[in-house]
Amino acid sequence: MKVIYKLQLVASLLFILHSSSNAQHKPPFYGDVQAIKGYDKVYSPPQHPILFIGSSSIRLWVDFAKTFNKYVVLNRGIGGAVTNDTDRYLDDLVFPYEPKQVVIYVGENDVIKANGGAEIFEDFKKLYTHLRTGLPNTPVIYIAIKGSPSRAEHLPKVVEANALIKTYIETASNIIFLDVYRPMLTKKGEMRPELFKEDMLHMNADGYKIWNKLLIPHLLKD
Q1: Which residues of the chain have pLDDT under 70?
Q2: Rounded to whole angstroms, how far apart are CA atoms 113 and 83?
């Protein structure tokens, strides 16, 4: 009986170690993506929506359904995502929906670890190149990286990345660079804390009003 118990114990430990190892090797936000895919199996997503992807500024869009109630939209933002995360899950969170238009906001979280704006730009190019493999002609709107007061020390990276991405987009087809960076500043070029929640990172309704005003004219109607 002791031998059997020991064998069972060893088997249990191996299972735990194997499961832990598998969990450690799963990429960031794997669980979030699986949860979204499970949700889609229960509640069918709309066909050919305007698809919003990227990080928390997408995910936490204030009054999203109300703001875009004249459009068929789908929000698949993931809080905390960097550009490479959005790229990694194109097969899961973009291509299956066959969107008629894609709105992207990602890159702001990249500034923390990126050596400079050029690095963020290179990751954007990879994302955009991969996006075009599955959606070669779909209209895309790329929302510029905003300046957040809590990340003021990273603003040089933001400015550099926005400039490089804007220049690149101007040479591409079916993609718009939506500048939200400058409209969110004062006339003196200073950031406006009143557009943000207490964390000075995520926007409040006033911040999104600026985005909505700039974005809606570019959205495709049914």
Answers
A1: 1-24
A2: 12
